[in-house]
Specification:
By secondary structure, the chain is of the alpha+beta class. Among the domains are: 288 residues, Collagenase (Catalytic Domain) (3-Layer(aba) Sandwich), CATH 3.40.390.10; 195 residues, Neutral endopeptidase, domain 2 (Orthogonal Bundle). The strands form 4 sheets. A 4-stranded mixed sheet has the order 2-3-5-4. The chain has a 3-stranded mixed sheet with strand order 6-8-7, with helices on one face. Strand 7 and strand 8 form a beta hairpin. The protein is globular.
Length: 751
Amino acid sequence: MLFNHNGVLYLIFSITIYLINTKSLHKNDLTRKKLYSSHHAVNNSNAALTPNKRTRAHARNFQNNNNNNNDEVCNSQACKDVSAKISAALNTSADPCDDFYNFACGGWKKEHDIPASENEITSFTVLTKEIETAIHQLIEEPAKEGESDALVKARNFFKSCMNTQEIEKKGADPANNFIKWIGGWSICNNDEWQASESKWDKYDVLRKIQRNFYPAPPFFTVEVTNDHLNSTKHLIKIDQSGLSLQREIYSKHDDIVEDYGEYMVKVANLLGHNCPTVAEEMKEILDFERGLANITTPAEAKQAGTFRRINLTILKTVIPAFPWEQHMRGIFSNDTNVADNEVVLATSPMYLYKVANLIKRTEPRLLSKYIVWQMLRDKISFLTQEFRSARAKFNKKMTGVEDTDPRWRTCTSITNDNMGVPIGTLYVQQYFSDATKQKAIVMIEEIIQAFKTRIKGHEWIDDKTRKCVIEKTDALVAKVGYASYITKPEELNKRFCKLSIDDNKFFENNLNVDKWIRYRLFKKLRKPVDKTKWPMFPQTINAMYQFYENEIVIPAGILQPPFFYDGDVPRALSYGAIGSIIGHELTHGFDNTGRKFDKNGDIVKEWWSDEAIKEFNKRAKKFETQYSKYKVQGIHPVSGKLTLGENIADNGGTKISFDAYLDWLKKNGNKEQKLPNLENYNEKQLFFIGYAQEYCANIRQKTEYIATLSEIHAPSQFRVKGTLSNMETFSEAFQCRSTSEMNPISKHEVW
């Protein structure tokens, strides 16, 4: 996936796919909002820059023949607009061979201050705002005749969010009613808790919340995912969960934990708990979470456990401190018939062993405090202004971000997150064409062919492994634009029939969405995998590869500038941007995780030769070493191990797309028109500029740092530097001197 989102604070993610589950709903309060990628539009017709003297010197080195005539320059309005935007983003005082990211994005970074309400501004987030504006206009329009009931529910969800008068009138009641439903909160030893304490049972409470909601984050989550041994079937997955902050924060940043504790106290006060011990009790929750963080498996170590299968009876035997069979049968419906020998996917068995014993030995009052907070913490922003202000104050203290977005934008974003499928109906009808879809399909086919050609030229792969890789590539499914059910009201109504939405109940609507997600998720267990399903909304500016399905997903939202261009705009830009993204997603099928799955999306047996695996690992290790040397702000190291899959995809995908572009050039006279005011840049140089400028970004320092703790993508500048410094074709295009920063002697390659 290109970007990933969660929670309130927006940590830096980057472009790519990487996913075992189609939607990540595990949240903590320091996880970043998913900013589906995007483009930036500089609406300044005078922004085109004339290259300065240094740029002219570069240009003389770059090109031997630069005597342009009118036929060589595209003078359409579209080309002029694109040229202006590209020119404005460049920093022509920077040497592209020393720091290509600064060269490609330096002008953009100078002109784009981070909004007060954001942790970052990127090419992606700018387009995200544009998409939100468009969605807002669509959802505010009067309903049309024949609209689906699902779309009516989406409009009502938005109305409930905008109805701040009703939200203020209800005050804390919705949250307190939710707490009462859970079984009460032991904070301040209140009267309600005293009345229910003798009947409160920790295992009953955990079953209750997981039977009704997804996600239900205390301690661990239970979900349904594809069976990696047979991708046509589903199985139960148990994953570690239950932290309010990122795991590393608890041990490295006492100041953040303390600030978060103050925020928790304020929330408790607003809920009516004002006893003298409330601060101490909130600290008690955080101390408990600190202990939980200590037994939580780190992200790097967890990757190795992604596919640990275990029989439920055996799980009960090796982790006897938790009633697993009773729990599973209690959260799934009776007709599911969870068997004694049910196979489950346990990503972190040692964590489950430790947490089971932690639950068993912890007294009920503390468990009540923790469980209620975990169920409530991501719902605070659905309450009154006082609650939202408390959260905003913590966010500002944490990263400097202020809550300045207008209510309509906040509500549009939340509505799209929860009701994005029916909203996609409006988006597709208004903004997407079949012609765009067909052009994208052709490009995907070209990039697939380029990949197969590259495979044939890789001497490190033996013939048997090469044959299997090509077979898997031939079996790849490409989903482009949107799912077929998006435009079929009857199918949408069927999909959303169990979801209840009331235009006066915003808090309850969000609970109902969590219930509806749980219902649809758990209902899949005994059904075959639906290969037609889409994991993304049409309006998403992102892309994805799915291991289990062996498919790439390219939604309608990303098929627009600056990723994908129509008309007479030089194709180099499209190949550099959307082409590298398509190549990135394709390469994920053969990264350090994807290569284990066969052409059907199964892990049945090792289908690579021992020698090919050895060579792959050797090459991958060089990527790990390369990226581990990069440091954010010159201090905080990037994890080359954690980002390995994305780095393999970045490097391979860009090379594949470049090869596909060269093939396109050969078929089209080996020449393209140049852009006005950018005549000094040839086709190949424009490809690399198009690639780099999709990563232009300004990010708050603390946000950037926090991302290094667990983010699976390298920071934007290192995605550009790391990828292009490994490409001989880049150095040739810009005639970079040997041993320059962008042209090191040692270059690394897997695909």
